[in-house]
Fold these 3 entries.
Entry 1:
Amino acid sequence: MKKGNLSAFFLALGGAIFVSLAAYLFWQPEREIVMDIEGHYENPFDVLSFEDILQRLPGSIPILQYHMIMTPHNASLLSPLIAKRPLLRRFILTSQEFREQLEILYQQGFRPISLDEYLALGSGEVSSLKRLAPGTKPFVLTFDDATYGQFDLIDTNSDGIVEIDPECAVGILLDFHNTHPDFALTGAFCIDFSKVPFLQPSYLEKKLNLLLDYGFEIVNHTKNHTSLDKLFRKSPDAFSREIGAAMEKFESYLGYRAKSINKIAYPNGRVSDQVKQAVKQISYKGKTYHFIAGLHAYGLWAPQPASTHFDPYAIPRIEISGKNFEKFVLLAPRLLTMPPLTEKKPQDK
Ligand SMILES: [Zn+2]
């Protein structure tokens, strides 16, 4: 190498080292966002300006994430909790608000599809979506933490016979489907066991089975609602136990029907690349469980699974409150222009 070339080489090398060092020193990891009813959290929508968020909308399929529904039946339990922790309000809709949101979605042409149907779009399998009329748009309903007002059984007539509270989410969805038959009865319940799911211990087995009977999906939201990223770093065994022990619980109530539980919802939205890799296959007490997808606790519209941006282990969801519903669903610019889902013609394949 000539002397001139050698100097140029060292100059370039020095430059590269300087740039790498500067990038290392000044690069900030993305702000960690915690989004759940337990523990500390912050609103991811406060981090970005509204315009930033609108620009980032992938314009695909909204996956809505609900937490608590305040019903006339549980209001006396929920009100003191809210008085103590006013921030909880963000996670609560009233029955009436939930019903109104469904009606608005329906009027806007949205029709619910299941998570399985959403995922199947990745392989071009849209045959089960033929039920969507032309011009309608798919969306997915999810409910997290098996908490207040999602699925309540009540003894309305004090005759010892319990029935589904018509004001809880499941009751409202059943009624909505009856009055709007083209609004399929579907939705995913992301269930953890940090407390008794749905808060009525004696009806848990009945409820889990009823959910599957009706065609709802159940998603593994872990045994103790522990953030999986930290847990995996600390102990991969404890990580497997957190997911496997939840499967054991599901099996104890659902038997072989628990096999349908093949998706994870990350508690507090905490996930890392290691976790995304490790959840694909979990071994626990001699059994192996496979998970085909992982749901975030926050985000905007989810990409179509057929798109190149799609990561089945990082599926974004829109956390719904009254405000977010308006801003990030109703006012999302692509809501009215999103092309309807159509099946590929044979010659296109
Ligand atoms: Zn949760």
Entry 2:
Amino acid sequence: MKAPSFRYVRARSLQHAYQVLQHHNGDAVAIAGGQSLMAGLNLRLSGPKVLVDIGGLPELSGMDCGGKEVRIGALTRHVEVLRSKALQERIPLLPQAVSHVAHAAIRNRGTLGGSLAYADPAAELPACAVALDATIVVGGLEGEREVKATDFFTGLMDTNLKPGELILAVRFPVPPPHTRFAFDEFTRRQGDFAVVGLAVTALVGGDQIETARAVYFGCVDRAKLAEQVSSALCGLKLPVADRGAIRNAVTKDLEPDDTPGWRAETKLRLAQVLTQRIVSRLAESGTQ
Ligand SMILES: Cc1cc2nc3c(=O)[nH]c(=O)nc-3n(C[C@H](O)[C@H](O)[C@H](O)COP(=O)(O)OP(=O)(O)OC[C@H]3O[C@@H](n4cnc5c(N)ncnc54)[C@H](O)[C@@H]3O)c2cc1C
């Protein structure tokens, strides 16, 4: 299928992008890497009258990995996250997660801002943003504001962004030493969106988990903290001998729906298996 016809505007500046988006009042959308938007247009899932190309705006580019936090511009492509030596050292969860995003061609064009704004519940990066307690920097004609990732994803493919606003950057606090990360997902084929996925950060003192943030994707309506699983992990000694409490916590956090090809109870079972694997990885990552 072909996309419905639209007007293309290449934003000359951030202000210009805001003005065009505002002027068309919901009939204009930003395009960054185009990897979700163009697929949706070609399938006629949406039909904006104007596409505002923000791909050339320097304000949305670049990565600053120097301080206590890492600031990643919205236009940073998945491949840049994947290859960043600084991220591999400071926040390895991000490159680890991106290695599961689609295929090389899509990772070469798709952007961090686009992934968070699109807010697909099966996407890896929204889950990581919540697990890492990131802050999303948003801008519009009325100025800039910051939203915690935990408040940003408000429903199925819905976010806290107001009409005419753009994601400018994402701030990730650099996790303290002794933080362990674990990430995995079940997909039908390599590169597909996850049926069930899980991203975990855990602060481990000695052999005990002190705090943990667990976020599922694929089997939820949006990226949000899995509170029961996160608190069930806290206080556990690694390696974990009795995993009954964690299995129960999964059933309290998740209420997956039946979807074509996947029954809800299969997803729940997969989530339990994945959680067990992730808990084993947390123990193993301390022995390397
Ligand atoms: C075959 C295929 C497989 C894929 N598999 C996966 C996968 O396994 N995991 C995964 O996470 N993703 C997957 N994707 C999606 C891909 O990662 C996209 O790149 C990403 O979701 C969107 O980034 P983008 O820059 O291409 O955004 P675009 O397609 O340009 O835009 C997506 C949406 O975000 C909005 N937007 C973009 N940038 C901003 C901004 N800075 N501020 C506000 N709004 C903005 C746009 O208006 C649009 O509504 C897949 C895509 C395809 C085509």
Entry 3:
Amino acid sequence: MIKKIETEYLKYFWPMRHYLITCGELPRANIIAVSFCMPVSNHPPMLACAIGQHMHSAELLQQTGEFVVNVPAPGLRRQVYYCGYHSGRDVDKFKETGLTPLPARQVSAPIIAECVAHVECRVEQRAPAGDKWLFIARVLDAYADEDLETGLCELELSLGEFPQKVYGGRFTGKAS
Ligand SMILES: Cc1cc2nc3c(=O)[nH]c(=O)nc-3n(C[C@H](O)[C@H](O)[C@H](O)COP(=O)(O)O)c2cc1C
């Protein structure tokens, strides 16, 4: 019989995509790097994303109930990691990364011009999920760069090896 051993299970979810979620409103809009984001319903179109309960973005989402999932173009790795390691409580991430905010079509949060696809969402439910809030949201609009749609531009599926530093060490094999 094959022997089964304990594992850091998250590595089996790798590669994950990385998204830049915009929330809040200009001039105080914020950007957070998020991997825990997935479609959950086709009819109506809905998605869910898990955001740390103490993060600035969770506070903004609670206040406005609106956000945009921006899909980064290849080559935005530095900006993704900046937004994933700094809090909007301390810095203006648009200013620090040089990313450009543009008005969204239906929500108050801006889109990021340098990203190649944008999914505008309105929060319908917020559920506690461990150290995160799970925001379950209706998709109000979705659009992408023509080059992406026609295949001239391709997305990066992941940014290298399983990033143990970001996700690792969360599960030691014993449920608590
Ligand atoms: C690649 C990457 C993916 C991340 N994914 C998530 C995620 O899915 N959920 C989350 O709460 N934080 C995630 N983070 C961490 C947040 O982006 C980070 O804590 C950020 O500084 C919070 O910013 P804020 O305080 O401005 O909201 C990720 C970070 C990186 C680098």
